[in-house]
Amino acid sequence: MSAEQRRESVIRAAIVEFARAGYHGTSTEAIARRVGVSQPYLFRLFPNKQAIFLAAAERCLADTRRLFEEASEGLEGEEAVHAMGRAYQRLIADDPEKLMMQMQTYVAVAAAEAAGDHEFGRTLRAAWEALWDSSHLALGADENETTTFLAYGMLVNTLVSMGFPAGHRVWSGFYDSARPATTGPTTTGPTTTGPAADGPGGPSLG
User: Fold this and answer.
1) Looking at the chain, which terminus has fewer C-beta neighbours within 10 angstroms, N or C?
2) In the prediction, which pLDDT does 163 show?
3) What pTM did the predictor assign?
4) Average pLDDT in the 112-118 region?
């Protein structure tokens, strides 16, 4: 494998490990072991653990952004909303580590900010802003639509991550088709058939 291929393998492995144990709970040894390389080789590809985490978190946000762009291509209005929602539904169902990595990213940035490290979150805020901008364009540059779409997505992330079952009253504001069939944290993150049929968090209720 080339260095670039190894680097890609490290990013994929890091998403899984960080998703499960968070920034502080994940060792570079665990990432190296999952990739099948030595720690010294790992640090030939990335200068330190923080750089690995940032690359993994940026990739997770970028993948979500591209997912929405591809799903909404050539569509407008409600068609774009529904297509983006269905795509996010599949993402959560097929790759739960991506959801958990998102949640770990927010925790890591908040912890860094509280510790006075404002540089740590700079690139991740830029990646999240790119996600917002891309969604905004796909949704017709309507600020209310974009805010609703992403707000429901964050609510879904929270409820699925915490393992609320589909029949729980906290899902009562969602259409039935926008609720998960099954939820619950596992050793690899939450499992769900996807809570979002009309947007990442379901349809706008307003």
Assistant:
1) C
2) 86
3) 0.82
4) 94
